[in-house]
Specification:
Number of strands: 11
Radius of gyration: 15 Å
Largest sheet: 8 strands, mixed
Strand order of the largest sheet: 6-7-8-9-4-3-10-11
CATH class: Mainly Beta
Helix content: 10-25%
Length: 147
């Protein structure tokens, strides 16, 4: 399936809306402890290769999650909006915040070695360990990272 020129989304209360540009039509899942704690489950995200334009940007809160990554959320309703590299080289918008999430394929699970045994997704897809992910992003382990 071809890259999507743009997709739209918003937070639960509508105070923040976004347009993600040049999006691959798939989503990935992160099982790391920070994503599980932040989302109450797993973080599902789609990469916005062309960046993201926001309306209601004054309502976005940022949490610096590590020396290299940060998480964005709506300061009013708390909706998780994105995870991004602080240098801007990657931004993944929350799959659940998309207006039309039905056209995406589930392709990759990251931090698979941190996934609790209590759940599993059906089907086969690429799986990456913590070491695989850190090597792919060429970043040092997150300071203060707790498994």
């Amino acid at each position: 399936m071809a890259e999507l020129e743009k997709v739209t989304g918003r937070c639960l209360c509508g105070a923040v809306a976004f347009t993600a540009k040049n999006v691959e039509p798939h989503f990935d899942v992160c099982h790391c402890s920070m994503c599980r704690r932040w989302s109450g489950g797993v973080m599902m995200a789609v990469e916005a290769k062309g960046g993201v334009d926001f309306s209601g940007e004054e309502n976005i809160g940022l949490f610096r999650a590590s020396d290299w990554g940060e998480r964005g959320f709506c300061k009013i309703c708390g909706t998780n909006l994105f995870w991004r590299m602080q240098d801007g080289s990657y931004v993944g918008v929350a799959y659940g915040a998309l207006d039309n999430a039905g056209d995406f394929e589930f392709t990759t699970e990251i931090f698979i070695d941190h996934k609790p045994d209590a759940y599993a997704f059906e089907g086969d897809r690429k799986q990456m360990t913590e070491a695989d992910v850190l090597a792919a992003f060429a970043a040092p382990p997150a300071e203060g990272y707790v498994q």
